[in-house]
Design goal:
homodimer, 4-stranded mixed beta sheet, 25% strand, alpha+beta, 3-stranded antiparallel beta sheet, DNA-binding, 7 strands, Dna Ligase, domain 1
Chain lengths: 170, 170
DNA sequence: CTGTAATTGCGAATCATTCGCATCTACGTG
DNA sequence: CACGTAGATGCGAATGATTCGCAATTACAG
């Protein structure tokens, strides 16, 4: 699953940020790199266990904390459950997430307005932005239509398995 | 502390949204109305206890949940601690919060860009926004300067007693 | 090859929030 | 204005994601 070149590259990335290249960290980074989803610690742990049956959940949490600190992974929060942290490899361009409350689908949206707001606020107030947490919620076109027709299962308690809020680090 | 007119007005507001006007709810709403801060359940509980020594923390949580559902209070998340929920009375105009990582100060910022982004995304993708969670972090002008000079106490673990992320409901 | 500081695994601890349940109470109705 | 009942409350216990303590390992500079 982890290719040789990937292993080498990740080792270098870790060295660059001054982190020891432990097999657990290599594994976690590889897992985050090969998925499009936003995984929480538990999900990462489950996947990691398939390659390293001994890995512990605490290690996953600690590795993620270090990797986040080093800027290799980004932590995300999901709109409806801010207690659960999700992670993704830092690589995709700046984007935000819109979660449909009807079907749970997550739509990635892109807009320059947020960066613009930061720029303007920065200039106007002298603020130095380092971090932002942005997430949207509502209904996708299909669910919005259903809702207007009254055929949307209310309180379907959607399971947000994929997306969550987006946190942008500079 | 709770004026007669306030009491009457809150009663009406509660009736309008179909909630029973219990003394606990009146108290909690009054507390949220008379402060500029963003309080978490514990803080609200502490204040409420001064007027109703018997009130329970669980009641505070349940009341806040109902009031939020009814649109009378808004729930906020703070950037550095998304596990703790803060609340404020719904009244102030749309604004966002910027938290200084140096001194912990919270600056309310206003910008039309977020609404603009929602509008544009709504038109372009047919999304129906109902909710957004926005919060910024960084350094205020003073702390930014100190940081450049290297005189900013690093990792001062600022206590964010006042502000937190902003959640906007329609 | 060695010494050592960083890291791991394990289970226990945190701690904000939620729940279960028995007891009250707000408020529409008669 | 007393009643009945759905809805609220208080209490303590439960949840559940994340963090901690500590002894055992291990990455990696010298």
């Amino acid at each position: 699953m982890i290719t040789q070149e990937q292993r080498v590259r990740i080792r270098r990335q870790l060295a660059e940020v001054g982190l020891r290249a432990t097999p657990q960290r290599l594994l976690i980074l590889a897992i985050l790199e090969e998925t499009d989803e936003h995984l929480d610690a538990e999900a990462i742990y489950e996947r990691a266990r398939q390659w390293d049956a001994q890995i512990s959940l605490a290690t996953v949490y600690r590795a993620l904390a270090k990797l986040k600190e080093a800027g290799l992974v980004a932590q995300r929060y999901f709109a409806r459950d801010h207690r659960r942290e999700y992670y993704e490899a830092v690589s995709k361009g700046e984007h935000y997430h819109f979660t449909c409350l009807g079907c749970g689908k997550v739509i990635e949206v892109r807009t320059p307005r947020i960066a613009q707001a930061r720029q303007e606020l920065s200039e106007a107030l002298g603020l130095e932005f380092t971090h932002a947490c942005i997430c949207f919620e509502g209904y996708c076109p299909e669910c919005a239509a259903k809702r207007r027709r009254g055929t949307l299962e209310s309180r379907a308690v959607p399971r947000f398995t994929v997306g969550n809020g987006v946190t942008i680090d500079d």
